[in-house]
């Protein structure tokens, strides 16, 4: 290819890498308008159970519209929400553009222009492809960028965080540390699930600084640990300051125990009520538990009624239909949490702690849920130690498997389950081949580029694994919780295959 054609190809990429996602995301935003979801009202109303950043983001836009007396509706929703959707979409545009240019810049140091451009376009289109799958193929009615929920900004922020972490592990510079630190605080203040970013940072630093690049490794790892601790303190501080300003209570948001409580209740037993007898400062807690358990049992929301659990304590992911059981668990999760636990705990607090103001009553209910969760969780570990917790292990392993599956595909139709495992096998195979190619190949730019793509693949797979284990054990895996790394997965796979062939 001539230099003239090379320049044209590069110039086209620089333009199209921004224009294509701009047309795509803004076009869908205009087509769909603000997509109102089940959780949207809790963000608009700045509910006590929500993290601070997204409600503040919506409140700021609403305040600007009120100040300048902008009014009206778009697609049946207040016009300020459409402004929020446009800003969210621009964040997705930036993320797609940034990712495409990052991988192109790495690839262009060694690969020929066509291969580098192919990887660059793959980076741009990977995020758009996942969004399209969510919007059209999966028929979810939105692709999250136009939705009024935290995923609308958490997903692109996670991709940006991964890019910055990739930078940090390639160049240990103060500015890179600060960027990762600030992004970690920001994204975890959008959605607590994104505390996985801190785990990813710590795990990757542990592997890289102590086993791979060991020059000043202990010092770098120690600094990383300090930064992660500082980030956790900052995240808690932001949450408390927000609630202090909004509600006059210097506390974190409520509901942190709800997901875990729903999970342990799924495998709990009626006799577990004995754990709550004569609980100090919380009278009749055993009666509350019994009421919750009986309501769950009456609606067949526990594992005893799950398809795929016909073999009872002998059931596991190898001899039973674990996908069917995991689906039953997912269908039961919100019903347990919102229709039963929340209602029963509200009634309990109103009866035993009358006269509390709304905010204090919510805090008391949160405390009750925390006691139920911690007690049942501790008992679950004791049952596992005694060999009596096979149902708990079955639910955990099935949910983690499901999380891995829907991180790269979907659980339905079932043919996608073996396909997803094949994709992981292909990913690991390409990773190993690229690693061997890097070890035994040439030095210079070729090795550096291969090492950079190996690092991207390592961070991507680690992020998916951490998210799968955390979400599979503490919440329940569904596509909007798991698709954070999907585009990165297929991009890293593409990069590894092309870099290996070269």
UniProtKB/TrEMBL annotation:
The chain crosses the membrane at residues 12-31, 80-97, 117-136, 148-166, 195-212, 218-238, 391-409, 415-441, 453-475, 481-499. Keywords: Membrane, Transmembrane, Transmembrane helix. Coiled coil: none annotated. It comes from Butyrivibrio hungatei. This is Uncharacterized protein.
């Amino acid at each position: 290819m001539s230099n003239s054609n090379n320049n044209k190809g590069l110039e086209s990429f620089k333009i199209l890498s921004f224009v294509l996602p701009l047309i795509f995301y803004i076009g869908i935003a205009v087509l769909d308008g603000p997509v109102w979801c089940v959780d949207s009202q809790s963000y608009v109303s700045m509910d006590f159970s929500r993290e601070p950043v997204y409600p503040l983001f919506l409140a700021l836009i609403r305040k600007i519209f009120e100040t300048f007396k902008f009014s009206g509706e778009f697609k049946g929703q207040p016009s300020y929400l459409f402004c929020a959707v446009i800003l969210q979409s621009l964040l997705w545009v930036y993320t797609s553009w940034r990712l495409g240019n990052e991988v192109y810049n790495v690839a262009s140091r060694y690969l020929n222009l066509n291969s580098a451009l192919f990887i660059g376009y793959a980076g741009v289109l990977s995020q758009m492809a996942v969004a399209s799958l969510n919007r059209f193929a999966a028929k979810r009615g939105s692709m999250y960028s136009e939705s009024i929920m935290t995923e609308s900004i958490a997903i692109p922020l996670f991709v940006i965080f991964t890019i910055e972490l990739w930078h940090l592990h390639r160049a240990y510079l103060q500015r890179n540390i600060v960027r990762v630190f600030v992004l970690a605080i920001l994204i975890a203040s959008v959605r607590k699930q994104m505390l996985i970013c801190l785990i990813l940072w710590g795990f990757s630093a542990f592997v890289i600084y102590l086993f791979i690049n060991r020059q000043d490794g202990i010092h770098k790892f120690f600094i990383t640990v300090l930064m992660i601790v500082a980030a956790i303190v900052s995240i808690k501080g932001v949450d408390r300051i927000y609630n202090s300003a909004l509600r006059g209570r210097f506390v974190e948001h409520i509901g942190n125990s709800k997901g875990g409580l729903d999970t342990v209740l799924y495998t709990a037993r009626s006799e577990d009520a004995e754990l709550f007898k004569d609980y100090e400062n919380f009278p009749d807690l055993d009666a509350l538990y019994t009421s919750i358990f009986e309501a769950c049992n009456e609606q067949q929301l526990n594992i005893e009624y799950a398809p795929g659990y016909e073999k009872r304590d002998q059931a596991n992911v190898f001899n039973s239909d674990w996908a069917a059981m995991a689906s039953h668990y997912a269908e039961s999760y919100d019903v347990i949490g919102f229709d039963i636990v929340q209602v029963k705990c509200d009634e309990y607090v109103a009866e035993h702690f009358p006269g509390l103001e709304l905010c204090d009553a919510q805090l008391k209910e949160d405390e009750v849920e925390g006691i139920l969760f911690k007690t049942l969780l501790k008992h679950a570990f004791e049952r596992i130690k005694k060999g009596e917790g096979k149902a708990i292990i079955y639910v955990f392993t099935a949910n983690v498997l499901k999380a891995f599956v829907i991180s790269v595909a979907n659980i339905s139709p079932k043919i996608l389950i073996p396909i997803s495992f094949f994709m992981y096998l292909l990913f690991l195979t390409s990773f190993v081949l690229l690693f061997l190619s890097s070890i035994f190949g040439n030095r210079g730019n070729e090795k550096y580029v291969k090492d950079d793509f190996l690092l991207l693949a390592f961070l991507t797979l680690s992020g998916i694994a951490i998210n799968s284990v955390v979400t599979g054990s503490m919440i329940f895996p569904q596509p909007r919780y798991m698709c954070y790394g999907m585009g990165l997965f297929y991009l890293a796979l593409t990069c590894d295959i092309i870099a290996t062939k070269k």
